[in-house]
C-alpha cells in the first residue's frame, strides 16, 4: 500500500485545500493550486481534493494538467494570479521567505458524487489528512475507503 510523499504518476494524489479555494475550483474559476514545495507529479496524474475544516472531506477528483516551478517573482503574473484566484497581497504573503513557487495546473475537476468524510476515513484506519499531499495506489485506496461508494469513482482515475 502506498501512502507517501512521492509516487508513480498513476497513483492518486490527495491534496488538502481550504474550502474557499475548493469552491472556486469546483466552479471552474480556479484552475491553479499554489504550493511552496513541488509534489512529484506528472501531467495526467489523478488528484483528489480534500477540503479542510470545517468541511473535512474528500470532495472532488480531477487531474494535473502541468506543473510550473520558478521563483515567486518570476511565476507571479496577472494571468497566474487570476487562475489561482488570489490577490497580489495573498500571493506575496504566501511565498514570503521562500525562493520557490509552484503552480499545479488542474483539469477535468469534478465533484465526487459520494463525498468521503474524515470520520469515515478514520473509521477505516488511523488516518490524518495531509498538510500538503499523500499518494495512494489502488490497494491503498481500498484500505482507506473500504466499500465506500466513492471508492470506484476514485479508482477509475488511477
UniProtKB/TrEMBL annotation:
Gene3D superfamilies in alphabetical order: Hypothetical protein (2.30.130.30)
Protein origin, superkingdom: Bacteria
Name recorded for this polypeptide: ASCH domain-containing protein
Lineage: Bacteria, Bacillati, Actinomycetota, Actinomycetes, Micrococcales
